[in-house]
Write a structure and sequence with these properties.
This protein has 47 helices and 6 strands. It is mainly α. Helix 16 runs antiparallel to helix 17. About 3% of the residues have low confidence. The radius of gyration is 35 Å and the shape is globular. 52% of the residues lie in helices and 3% in strands. The protein starts with a helix and ends with a helix. The longest helix is centred in the middle third of the chain and has 23 residues. It has a two-stranded antiparallel sheet with strand order 1-2. It has a two-stranded antiparallel ribbon with strand order 3-4. Strands 5-6 form a two-stranded antiparallel sheet. Strand 5 and strand 6 form a beta hairpin.
């Protein structure tokens, strides 16, 4: 064994390594390769360390690891040597695989490799190395090597790939100093790659970890930070080394603020601009860009730009007309009253010199009254009364009267418009008389047009993928069953493009993986849904990866991901999986009887007479309907608007379900329990009489399921939790939320898991519209499963949970009645504004309908008094230009809050601000 080489590797001395390996004969090289490959770079026995501080152990081990790789590749002289330096390994189950020492090309050890390539040019084998390390599947080069290989002519310059490779920082793989020194050495790379960050979007918002010699590095206590911090340090080092950043970069960064990128990304560009300190001449040269940025709607960016505009507003070259035209685009931006006030002051100063002549501009200025800031409103009011006090000003201001505060409020008193222009109270008497049933009826809904030909039926698959709605998915299965005799023999070929289309995207667990499962099963002529062995598929993919067949492996991985989603969707969407199984069975048995739950009217409702007709068809053929299908059909039924013909036909029903259907359609008030049909009875009784207590179920196996005996009400509040480390804390819990499912679930019929009680089952919010279609008349339990469990720091999934279901509720005018109000209240106080806006709209509509909001008021008062959800979010609701009925609702919540807060040990934050609204 070459002891000096072992020592050089252990010390991470790359220069010594090259000095030793470059002098080896061919036979010595090959024997050394064999010996070095057998050693473990992380073993202190194989590579004894000396005088390494404990805190530096991790970094030094990484250095030894790369020194080990470097040793092997420096003994390569020709293409045949590459296979010799590959390191043989075995995984945890004993399967062999190989590791390449050329992984060092992804590190920041640039100089040692270049020294080796200079001494032993790799021209005769570098293409083989790059084929494995730099292809469409793998970006296996750090930027230094990427740039070097490009300049050597070994790889082409692909701008976007280069920019992303430079700017995106993998965990622990980069060094600020190394990158700064490299870029300073190659200024062409700065201008051609680094400074293109203004127009190529990269993942600079990711958290990462890197090596930094900067004592003031902005790393968190956990040693990680956003990648933007990395590049802040690199820029500072470049300037420290003497590099002068081109001033054209200022204009490019200003232009980048118009990009539709994430706010934190644009904020970084704003910080870079402040660091570059644009001169007045530069800002004036780009003032039209500054004005355009005002319309982006990004508050922090508007604030930065307004500061620049203020700094040039007194310059003779300032384009006031351009500013005046673009400024209104910023009037609705949130939480930037200071920036907007600065803009108004620019207007006031110029109007004082040159009074405005365009009277219509006051209509745009009046929009600023929607901003709650008192000083801003006063400045706008003064501007309007001083320069726009011509005829018609009262009518311009009238729509904003509910927004006015302080001195601005006096403006409306002196400029009172006609009574006819005042907005009406939400609580209209005619609206309050509306019943709480879902606001739809068969004669006002759009009938669904069913496909009449086999080709139209197959084309409907595309609509299913695009819309993912009950009006497409359920209709497709129904029509396919009815027209199965006419389906062309080559249907398997015709649906291949749809299978390919489904595989092209990664779907959440839900409808689309199940649609894929059906199409895959049907095209394979299976009479039952296929069962996917994803573990076996994964082993096949692993084998291909070991053989470096990345393209083939990735090709197999897409179906595997879909198969996993389909397997999981069986549990998440039992109704749709059951329908798939029933469809395949019907196709096998040539059964053309229709599904009962297929919607007849948009978006997912069923006319009563149609359901009764279908049941009579089943009875005529002596077949019993599927219970799951019948329950969803009843859930979707327009049961309060039943024609005389439907009632007459319902009297003819003979099946064991007949009493339930006759009860549901209003032919009888008698509940005739049947153990086999217990899920149906528990469903329709709650739908027909949502507020009643049904003691008839107290002696059944369903008695303890929420919504069966009593309406759906769940518990919520702070509960003590004992954690794994023994510590005791408190967590806010919603029972029957998807994290707190009922125990002993398997002991109850599966059908109970999905409808009025929902069992806390949670599916992706992107599937909420379809799931709500399964029980549109009583969506409370479905909605409760989407309530976010945290007051702040919610992830993207929780943001969708608190937005998409509520959008569907509003879109289809659905009603919540009991604990569904918890979801509405949680959305009203959620950390993201879109959810709060949606909840506000729903509450206003409910007040207009005269609904009982007692449960919502109590919930809001409790979560505020218990200091769970922030008071400031409710103050935002109170600050809106609310009609009297909504204001009264807000005050009632505060009164309940005051009663509840007396029971607490301490007052919540911002208590005084909330109490001030009582006055």
């Amino acid at each position: 064994m070459n002891q000096p080489l072992i020592t050089a590797i252990a010390e991470g001395d790359f220069s010594a390594i090259l000095n030793i390996t470059s002098q080896l004969t061919d036979s010595e090289r090959y024997s050394t390769i064999t010996a070095i490959k057998a050693l473990d770079p992380y073993s202190e026995k194989d590579f004894p360390r000396k005088n390494i501080d404990k805190k530096n152990t991790y970094r030094h081990n990484y250095k030894v690891f790369q020194a080990h790789n470097y040793t092997l590749i420096t003994m390569v002289r020709e293409e045949n040597d590459i296979a010799k330096v590959m390191i043989d390994k075995k995984n945890y189950i004993g399967e062999p695989y190989q590791v390449t020492p050329y992984a060092i090309l992804g590190s920041f050890y640039f100089e040692p490799i270049i020294n080796y390539f200079t001494q032993f040019p790799p021209d005769n084998y570098i293409k083989k190395v790059l084929k494995e390390r730099y292809n469409k599947e793998i970006d296996g080069l750090s930027f230094g090597f990427q740039w070097y290989f490009y300049k050597k002519g070994w790889i082409p310059f692909e701008e976007e790939r280069f920019v992303k490779n430079l700017l995106e920082i993998n965990m622990g793989s980069r060094s600020v100093t190394a990158d700064a020194q490299f870029l300073f050495q190659y200024p062409e790379a700065i201008e051609k790659v680094l400074l293109q960050l203004y127009r190529i979007e990269t993942k600079v918002l990711d958290l990462s970890k890197w090596k930094s010699d900067n004592p003031s590095s902005k790393m968190s206590t956990s040693g990680v930070a956003k990648v933007t911090t990395y590049w802040d340090e690199v820029f500072e080092l470049l300037v420290h080394y003497g590099y002068q950043i081109p001033r054209s970069f200022v204009g490019q960064l200003l232009e980048s603020l118009l990009n539709q990128w994430k706010k934190p990304h644009l904020d970084w560009h704003c910080r870079l601009l402040k660091w570059l300190a644009p001169t007045q001449e530069e800002l004036l040269a780009h003032q039209q860009t500054l004005f355009a940025v005002l319309g982006t709607g990004v508050g922090s960016v508007v604030k930065t730009v307004m500061e620049y505009i203020v700094s040039i507003a007194n310059a003779p070259q300032f384009d006031f007309e351009g500013f005046m035209q673009q400024f209104p685009l910023a009037f609705t931006v949130d939480k930037q009253p200071k920036a907007l006030l600065q803009g108004v002051e620019i207007l006031a100063k110029e109007f004082k010199k040159h009074p405005p002549t365009d009277v219509s501009y006051r209509e745009q200025l009046a929009v600023l009254f929607t901003q709650p800031d008192v000083k801003l409103q006063e400045a706008v009011a003064e501007l309007l009364t001083t320069y726009f006090n011509q005829k018609g000003l009262p009518e311009v201001i009238a729509p904003y009267r509910d927004y006015l505060k302080g001195k601005a409020q006096n403006l409306l008193a002196t400029l009172s418009p006609s009574e006819s222009s005042a907005p009406s109270d939400l609580s209209d008497s005619s609206a309050s008389s509306e019943k709480s049933q879902t606001a739809c009826a068969a004669h006002t809904l759009t009938p669904i047009i069913y496909p009449l030909t086999p080709n139209e039926t197959l084309f409907l698959i595309g609509d299913c993928i695009r819309e993912k709605s009950a009006a497409t998915i359920d209709v497709f299965f129904d029509v396919l069953v009815r027209l199965q005799d006419q389906i062309p023999a080559d249907y398997a070929e015709q649906i291949k493009p749809y299978l390919k289309q489904l595989l092209a995207r990664e779907w959440f667990v839900g409808t689309m993986p199940l649609l894929y499962l059906f199409l895959d099963s049907w095209s394979n002529q299976s009479a039952t849904p296929l069962v996917y062995d994803t573990d076996k598929e994964w082993k096949e993919i692993q084998k291909l990866y070991k053989e470096d067949k990345y393209t083939q492996a990735d090709k197999l991985d897409k179906p595997r991901v879909m198969h996993i989603a389909a397997n999981q969707a069986k549990e998440a969407f039992p109704y749709l999986f059951n329908k798939i199984a029933r469809t395949l069975q019907k196709l096998k048995e040539k059964d053309t009887l229709p599904f009962l739950s297929t919607p007849t009217h948009e978006p997912f409702y069923i006319e009563a007479e149609v359901l009764v007709d279908k049941l009579l068809q089943y009875e005529a053929q002596g077949k019993a309907p599927d219970l799951d299908d019948l329950i969803v059909a009843c859930n979707r039924l327009l049961f309060w608007e039943v024609s005389a013909a439907a009632k007459e036909k319902a009297q003819q029903l003979k099946g064991d379900y007949a009493p339930a259907i006759q009860y549901y359609l209003g032919l009888t008030d008698k509940i005739q329990l049947n153990e086999a049909l217990l899920p149906l009875w528990t469903q329709i009784t709650r739908l027909k009489h949502p507020d009643e207590e049904f003691k008839v179920f107290e002696n059944t196996q369903a008695k303890n399921i929420l919504s069966v005996v009593k309406p759906f009400y769940i518990r919520y509040g702070w509960e003590k939790r004992t954690y794994a480390n023994g510590e005791v804390g408190e967590e806010f819990t919603y029972h029957c939320n998807h994290y707190y499912k009922y125990k002993n679930k398997k002991s109850r019929p599966a059908l109970y898991n999905y409808y009025n009680a929902n069992e806390g089952e949670h599916t992706s919010a992107q599937e909420a519209e379809y799931k709500l279609s399964l029980n549109p008349h009583y969506p409370d339990a479905i909605l409760c499963a989407y309530i976010a469990l945290w007051a702040t720091m919610n992830e993207a999934d929780q943001v969708r949970d608190m937005t998409l279901p509520l959008e569907a509720v509003l879109r289809y005018d659905l009603r919540v009645r009991h604990s569904g109000w918890l979801y509405i209240g949680a959305c009203l106080l959620f950390e993201k504004r879109p959810s709060r806006d949606l909840a506000y709209e729903y509450i206003c509509q409910a007040i207009a309908r005269g609904e009982d909001l007692t449960h919502l008021k109590t919930y809001l008062a409790n979560v505020l008094a218990w200091d769970y959800l922030p008071i400031l979010r409710f103050i935002e609701f109170l600050d809106r230009p609310n009609p009297p009925a909504v204001k009264a609702f807000g005050k009632e919540v505060i009164q309940l809050y005051l009663e509840e807060v007396k029971k607490q040990n301490k007052l919540p934050r911002n208590h005084k601000k909330l109490v001030a609204f009582i006055d």
